[in-house]
Amino acid sequence: MRRLVGAQALACAIVFGQAGPYQRQEVDNAAASRGRQMYTQFCINCHGALAKGTEQGPDLIRSPLVLRDRMGDQIGPALKKLANHKSDLTQAQVGDLTHFLKDQVEATAKNRNPVTPPNVLTGNAEAGRAYFNGTGKCNTCHSATGDFAGVGRKYNPLDLQQRFLFPRRSKPIQVTVTAAGGQPVTGSLERIDDFSVSLRDALGEYRAFSREKTTRVDLNDPLAVHNQMLDLYTDQDIHNVVRYLESLK
Amino acid sequence: MKLAVFLFAASAFAQTSFPEAWPSYNGDLSGRRYSTLSKINQSNINSLSLAWVYRVNPGRAPQAGGGNVNTTIKGTPVVVNGVLYTTIPDHVWAIDARTGREIWHHVWTSKGGWHIGNRGVAVLRETVYVETPDCNLIALNAKDGKEKWHTQICDLEQFYYASVAPIVVQTRLKNHVITGVSGDDLDIPGYIESHDPDTGALEWRWYAHPEPGSPEAKTWPSVEAMLHGGGMTWVPSTYDPDLNLLYFGTGNPQPVIAGQGREGSNLYTECIIALNPDTGKLQWYFQPSPHDTHDWDAVQTPVLFDGEVNGQPRKLLAQASRNGWFFLLDRATGQHILSSEFVKTNWTLGVDAKGQPIPNPAKQPKLDGALVTPNQGGAINWPSPSFNPETGLFYANAARAWSVYYLYDDDDKPEGWGGNDRGGVSEAMLQAIDYKTGKIRWSHKWPGGGGGVRSGLLSTAGKLLFAGDPSANFVALDPATGDPLWHAALHTSVTNGPITYELDGVQYLVVGAGDTLYSFAMRAK
After folding, report:
1. Which stretches within B143-202 are classed as H helix?
2. Total domains, chain B
3. Residue A48 CB: number of other CB atoms within 10 A?
4. pLDDT confidence of residue B1
5. What average pLDDT does the segment B101-119 reach?
6. Tell me, what's the ipTM?
7. Taking the model in full, what pTM does it have?
């Protein structure tokens, strides 16, 4: 049974060279910057500006040799062995190069997050206004001069798009529970499942009910209409409305 | 001591050398998660009592890479010879299945890898097999948890990791331990392997891409894109011993979201695959999500059952796929029989002549966003479905979820993900699908539940269907109607697939929620 733990395991890993992501080479930004200069000078023509390869040279981000390298222990010997490569780099220069390449690898592995926010202002504000007051019936509950006055200042465009589609709950769901033979009890929904429902009534009192077959439960969710609209919006409608909302400064 | 045998309706799937109670990830190797046990049934379900509770305690070992140890039980326990085996990443526990008392605890010292979850163990005779986040298959002595051997199954340096439950397959020729791999941070190919159960030696590896130069390779723009095209094998396989075919799904292509550098359908990513387990040779494939750009791994359990289609008996395979579509295939040939939505989606232009959905280009990720349903989490995810031969219904704990897909990298050759989804809203529901028509026989919307449900399903001959709901309840429903019949309020939501087994005449029902296993028993006569 293996019971090596913590520092003991780390020590073993270092001693036996069993490096993994736990000991993935930590990028030194200054070294990566120096490495970038070297890369630009000696490598970029064949391996491309982002090290993703060209017709002249392979992708270095997808390279198992680069991925397995630690501080040049793979790249250094490869540079000396491969034809048409810079073979006279010092160990320190090779180390800098690895920091640059590792930085590119790490950036790729994390690129499910954007470097800059996406530009969502691609629609037509006038068409958005028409949709808001027409087909979309947004003006049934919202107003450009009322609750949405200045909404374009309040949120950045990306948040505006997300909040327009998926508004956060500002008012609780209202629920009315009518037990068999009992009087309806109305309040703000606390919790509901198949077996019970609870609410806070107008006096702030917590009320809970078992859900029997004869128990009637009526929910009034102010966001329900927004969720129903998701089946109706086109992406063009969305971008037009976002452009319109963004103009409400 | 009497050990009751877990019975299966389709004897073809009962591995006769496994007389135990829940001997494999899905119980049997059909993936149906249907038990013929009926001591717990509709008439007495409200007499069910709590038998034991077991909370995993990984001790003080730090998680590789820092942070807290992920103690969520996402694996399905395996029960063999009265011993229950449960896991979290780097940890295996053997527990007395009658009492919940710990017998042994194995701690694997990790060198890293994603500790997102572990799906469980496989057991063959006196050996317990488990995969570790740092890319090892380890074999433990079932008696005391001591390591017999370990072998590397993937390369941490290329950002692979391992989370899948191994599967033991016994063919007429020999036994195999089948392993899968995980990881989609970088552009690496997925594969599945077979190992010798005694030594761990690699028997074969099948990559989720075609051979360069083959007709199927033309579904990629270049060999380079194909060899870095993903297709991880996140979920355990199923197996038909009569056909000697192993079935599994493959995951998303790489780059995940930015697909402009991999035009084509991208075989064999997003496929249901049939292999010969003795050779690793491909027999047939079907692709639920050609050219996926939404991270909709088609790895959901391919469920095997025999049924009737248009009056003819057929050997069938069904999958409720993460993209919201249900597929019914002939599992001998891969011939498509039926495709239908099990939740409403908005990303297709219909299906092609092969029955495969045609992606709508307008719903590919966009620089300014495209509103898509399902979301990245999918209409269903890794939690297991169930097929009940008595009702003829296929059950899926599903969600109708929306999000906006953004393209972050519009370079001709993106890498990694290059985009993501954001948002949105989700409605959770339990869907009962008539396999003959693909229509929804009944749909039970879980009240009060947003977000996807991460509970697998179990149906039994006791006319019960067990599921976790989004409100931390473990629920029994009528499998014919979807009416809730019983529940137990747990401390948190169900996080694995429930199982059942019978020991000494007592039927047990075990489910995981967070770091805790709850065991219920029917002791009433």
Report:
1. none
2. 1
3. 19
4. 33
5. 94
6. 0.91
7. 0.94
